[in-house]
Design goal:
Length: about 190
């Protein structure tokens, strides 16, 4: 006789007979457990590196450090779009690096890099390798990923307790946020 699924079983994964869905049944799934446990830290490290690299671009353009803008010097204040892009790069890069308002900052950064690609690089040629837009395309997609994933571990959002805020990482599969209650089987 089949037992109906109750509320406590709703988050337990069910696998078809013969499937190799549980950890430890083969080599590939045996590695999934430790990798899943490190996922938040890997995402946090990814966020830190991407934020640092982006902030360095902004600092180079605004202050002439790290080689300066386009091989030396700075971008004159108020120049469209370069100076505004550099301000976004520095500001959003520092916020993403720190994990503070990550999703909002990453959304702004991703949009600015999409603009840079389509307005500056793409008119020269379709493909990034031909038009010099690899950096803009990679930053755009990296920040878009952070919009959807959140900051991961080691983020200031978590330190300040804004777990449910715009920069928080959603609960892992199988976890239930307390404010939503216990899941009920369909």
């Amino acid at each position: 006789m089949d037992n109906p699924v109750n509320a406590t079983d709703a988050t337990t994964p069910h696998h078809a007979p013969g499937s190799h869905g549980s950890p430890g049944q083969n080599g590939a799934n045996g590695l999934a457990g430790p990798l899943n446990q490190a996922q938040s830290y890997a995402l946090g490290l990814f966020r830190i590196v991407i934020g640092l690299l982006f902030a360095c671009h902004g600092a180079a353009s605004l202050f002439g450090v790290l080689g300066g803008a386009m091989g030396g010097g700075t971008i004159p204040a108020g120049t469209w779009p370069g100076w505004y892009a550099a301000v976004i790069q520095l500001g959003a890069g520092v916020l993403v690096l720190a994990g503070l308002g990550t999703r909002s900052a990453a959304f702004l950064a991703s949009g600015s890099m999409a603009y840079a690609y389509f307005k500056v690089h793409q008119p020269a040629s379709l493909f990034p390798l031909q038009n010099g837009g690899e950096t803009a395309a990679l930053f755009c997609w990296a920040f878009a990923l952070l919009v959807f994933t959140g900051p991961g571990a080691l983020a200031l959002d978590r330190l300040f307790g804004t777990r449910g805020g715009a920069g928080a990482t959603p609960p892992r599969t199988g976890e239930t946020p307390k404010e939503h209650g216990t899941p009920v089987a369909a």
